[in-house]
Amino acid sequence: MKPVYERFIENPDFTKPDFIELIKCAEDPEAVRRLKEEAVRIREIYYGKKVFTRGLIEYTNYCKNDCYYCGIRKSNTNAKRYRLTEDEIMACCENGYELGFRTFVLQGGEDAYYTDDRMVAIIKKIKEAYPECALTLSIGEKSYESYKRFREAGADRYLLRHETANEEHYRKLHPEKMSVRKNCLYDLKKLGYQVGAGMMVGSPYQTTEDLAEDLVFLKELQPEMVGIGPFIPHHDTQFAKEPAGSVEMTLFLLAVIRILLPKVLLPATTALGTMDPLGREKGLQAGANVVMPNLSPVKNRKQYELYDNKICTGEEAAECRGCMGRRVASVGYELVTERGDAV
Hints:
Helix content is 43%, strand content 11%. It contains 14 helices and 11 strands. The longest helix is centred in the N-terminal third of the chain and has 19 residues, at 29-47. The protein is globular and about 60 Å long. The two termini are 35 Å apart.
């Protein structure tokens, strides 16, 4: 009988028990090599050597949530809070546009100051100024009506990492219920957003079964984007002393997700680059095709600290862009200035 990873390559329509068996192959160098090779082959069919950029604008670090792993959780009284003004957000977009970014990502904590009316005004302003650019929101759990208003105002994409698909595991990481987050993702799909989900790899209490459940959920959801990164502890959370997630397991899962969802937009995340100096390059060599340099004002970057030792907090956007271009080229890919929609 063929090894499970060869069966997955031939037909990735796996069930949870199959995925459990597959994940155990992460320790097998031959399985890892074959899966990465296949992931790269598939991504080049759909996207060639192109790597898309997303200009990240971290516009608020206020958050009403208390996720146990997050440095900007509401209970962290040591966090220095900030909000960008509308003018500051527009200045980030202008800077990014001049540097060749054609997708902007507005990312923030769940901050009640930014009401639906305020968000709609910001979305419209960005889309009027840069009609050919894609606008992605990453601002958490909202009602169907809120998502509808943002979509009608011009938002194109929405990132909402599900973090874990297992309800019991979710409760160990968050005080809130998970069903809300999964429902949000299905609402976003209904409204015509390009949707991004994703999970932390190696988060506290995570089991192989949990990761298998994540893969089943991604297969059901069929998102256009999947963001995964290793868990990295933050010193002001209850998980401060927990071990970080594995770079190798993250790379293995990137390859698996590329094979499972061939046309997906798959970032080589900042968390990967934080855990390994060549993490983002290794991500591209495992099937990733997106990078997300930071456009936020340098003065605020260290304050948007979701986890410890986050990289690129002291660089200007142009430095980030230039550095990223060189990194991407070093492994044989090309940073492009397209919107980079899912095919």
